[in-house]
Model the fold of this input.
Amino acid sequence: MSKLKVISEKSLTNNSRIVGLLAQLEKINNESTDSDTARYVTSKILHLAQSQEKTRREMTAKGSTGIEVLLSTLENTKDLQTMLNILNILVELISAGGGRRASFLVAKGSSQILLQLLTNASKESPPHEELMVQIHSVLAKIGPKDKKFGVKARINGALNITLSLVKQNLQNHRLVLPCLQLLRVYSANSVNSVSLGKNGVVELMFKIIGPFSKKNSGLMKVALDTLAALLKSKTNARRAVDRGYVQVLLTIYVDWHRHDNRHRNMLIRKGILQSLKSVTNIKLGRKAFIDANGMKILYNTSQECLAVRTLDPLVNTSSLIMRKCFPKNRLPLPTIKSSFHFPLPVIPVTGPVAQLYNLPPEVDDVVDESDDNDDIDLEAENEIENEDDPDQNFKNDDIETDINKLKPQQVPGRTIEELKMYEHLFPELVDDFQDYDLISKEPKPFVFEGKVCGPIIVPTAGEDASGSSGNLRKGIVMKEKVSPKGDEGDKKPVSMDVAKESVKANDGPSQQQLVDQNRTVSSAHGLNGDLVKALDRITLQSAPSQTAPGVSAETKKECTLPLSVLSCARACPNMAACGSVLFEGRAVQLGKLCCTGVETEDDEDTESNSSVEQASVEVPDGPTLHDPDLYIEIVKNTKSVPEYSEVAYPDYFGHIPPPFKEPILERPYGVQRTKIAQDIERLIHQSDIIDRVVYDLDSPNYIIPEEGDILKFNSKFESGNLRKVIQIRKNEYDLILNSDINSNHYHQWFYFEVSGMRPGAAYRFNIINCEKSNSQFNYGMQPLMYSVQEALNARPWWIRVGTDICYYKNHFSRSSVAAGGQKGKSYYTITFTVSFPHKDDVCYFAYHYPYTYSTLQMHLQKLESAHNPQQIYFRKDVLCETLSGNSCPLVTITAMPESNYYEHICQFRNRPYVFLSARVHPGETNASWVMKGTLEYLMSNSPTAQSLRESYIFKIVPMLNPDGVINGNHRCSLSGEDLNRQWQSPNPDLHPTIYHAKGLLQYLAAVKRLPLVYCDYHGHSRKKNVFMYGCSIKETVWHTNENATSCDVVEDIGYRTLPKILSHIAPAFCMSSCSFVVEKSKESTARVVVWREIGVQRSYTMESTLCGCDQGKYKGLQIGTRELEEMGAKFCVGLLRLKRLTSPLEYNLPSSLLDFESDLIESSCKVTSSVCLCFGCSPTTYVLDEDEPRFLEEVDYSAESNDDLDIELAENAGDYEPATQEEALSDSELSRTYLP
Ligand SMILES: [Zn+2]
Done:
């Protein structure tokens, strides 16, 4: 580089030849001497320009006036040869220099001068051919670089000059070629395009393009490019349709496809497809395409192209056209409203729910009445000038710009008197602990206090409850439905119909008896014969061989679940094998199950439970939170809208993280187009389509055809979501999800059961009514599967499964009622292919690791029963009842005071509060797993946890939306609204959990006990890693680029400390994904309201990925419950560190207890200073909804847009952004894992 510079400077100082010539030319211009000299000088310049790159460079160098001199000569000269010389020089310059030099010419005003020259030249009759060729050549090159070129050309009358030149010289290819090139440039402007169309340009192009020919392929190519550009105008497209050109294009395409055997004319074939693509943007075009058998033609040709990789652009463009023309289908549903009904106590006056209720029942909400709005704007097209793109500067209008809205504001909330109702939820503030035994070490025995009601069936595989006898899959069946209203209010345990044979004699079992019955009977009878046999086999054999190699070592280390709870009525002799070896002390529930299973099968002998003791000894401390029997008991108290009477096996057995890593899936090449081709085949080979409904919530009496080889589906259990299933081909099913209750959309969460599979066969599942425009399923995320057989084989876990996963827009039209009023939208399909490992298995699929409300209640009870009351202050209160009458738990955790002496009580009461909540969005089950990690950590015996409890009082609402969770909603509560948009003014009748959670915070504010931290746990469906959203005035204002009053605001940057700490200690956490911007659309979320209205400075949303991590220790892996729970625990550790940073004076704990002391001070400095620096350069990431890069197949084929999105990028190129780690993590494990 520097060498070039030296040379060019040198040549300038040496007064180079070209400089001299240009000076000479300038002189000629000024003196208007004879044309001979000008001709001579320009030919010399041309010669130099043709032969020397140095000359071309000098002429277009910054500061050079050479171009001005040439252009002014061109303007003034009357001499043809001089003009040609100059035009030739310009051609030389641009041809060699690419776009930069063309832009340079534009900047010097060349387009106007050349257009003027064109007009003048056209006045001669006939116009000088060579001159025209040259003018057109230069204009075609510089036009695209001139934003105003379209308008300039039209004003100068250039459009028709070029057009008539072509018309009159069709056989003169040397002249026609640059003219066509220029027409292509003109027609980038829609007004020009329409105007050219009126003058017959479309017909003209069809005179040039034609069937396969080895001659003039260059001309053909340009003509097709021009045509494709012209047909983007709807007027022109309609003209083409009217003249039957769609058929012509298809015929020409097939001809080239047949004859172009060596694929030398790929660009011509692509050009034909591009023209078809343009013309099918209008409805008439799509109809003409279908009528001309276009689907079949393009399908067949593209199938033939598949083998040749270089023809990919043809396959992709064909696919795009076919998707666009694919007739829109109606979603096969009677209504898109949820199949479940829940009458609301109050109907909101406005909003989506009001709309839903106001819709007359007879209105078909599945499709729009008509979508004939397609060509409406045809007339208006002339008015629209599309060339001058408005400034593309990114400006997000969702960012709050009103500084007053950003400042904390004391909204007159409820009065102290009104808030008194929450006093009883804060006994820790008044208790004097006089009646507590604060010294005793005796742990409280576990007492189960759950109530019993409602019928329970341990799961089935899609058969109705009264199904055929003999099949034990029925499991625990409770015949009686929930006791009718007339019954005693206090629900008594209802006799369970488990194993009619064995229980029948037992007319009125006491609750204890019932529980015992359960223990011995339920598990065995919950399984079908095969399962029990399998079970038998396992438990009778000694198991080590069945444990996957390498599992045990790791398992042992990670195992935290003791067998101590194992309380089998009668232990079987195989206990040691199944308990301690098979399950490694982890799967207590299975140990018990397998034990009892054997027992019921063949009652051999029952001795020596010493082995049980032994098993429990080996297990590290910590409570086991899963207990199948307790789960069943709790489920009976859970009130669901559909009145579920079944329990899904995974919830019954529990889940433990698998011992292997689950990498983010690599996207196979061309998966989308393969799937789409299969979808298109539905239309082309209609006779192959079975189209048989095999599951339907809307017609509960629907009889599933009793044919072999049909999968059975079921979703009638807590958190289940699957509305309808249609068998498409032998091993392919379309699945439809249910809307949230009192809503007509939010389809994302799914959880359902499948049985009746043939092992080894590959089944394709398509969930066809997804709504989001993109999904992590396109970026390596897999759905989850749970196999009951596997669970019985000591692998009770959800695993990531599925291949050929792809998420794409499909051909089912989406009613404007459910698409925010927008017409012409489509649904999206998530497709995945699975094969099942076992025969006679019952498998479950879920969007993410399920975590039901009953699971939460079970976990809380187990935590309560296992805790040491001398050490831990634990309370479980009811915050309020939900709309359907479930209680919303509120948990208080802190350390017991050391004694009831004044100072200890004082220290106890003065601990700052930390307020946590989770699962306001039911589909974000990961939030519950993070919360489980937090709760378990807070209740653990580790010294750090004890320090933490001594430092804070934790108020936790672990599930803000129990009803939504229970009923399988994705986003809303039973009110059909997103509860995380109700925090500004929650309605006590419609949003009780939000109303009262806010009430608690208002109470704390009123008694001057504002929490130090508020955090609401969420899950994020479109990003990787774990990260936080916080609130900052400065960072918000900075983002709007309004430097205005931001400087006046004094803001403590403390809100950054906790995320910063977490990025150091939590491997899944990623600081660079955090954002502290306040968006308008989020103004009624917990985070923003607790910050602005309640005044908690550290108010956060913590988002955990549903997919996986692209940085840190877990880079390249999908996230599992272990990582999520770890995040919850690390969050607690982070709080302890925050405590040190916020109140160093209280630093009085022995440092040996903590694992991060060494860098404490250092990192506190770092946190502060890096934030300070940040304000100068890059304060925060404003996080858009999606941050995944595009990839090849992400193509929009929708008719509603003209977007040219079929960008041919290398597939998966840059699928993952490089991790932008803010600073090197101190985590030593990081380097250990990733350094070679
Ligand atoms: Zn959420």
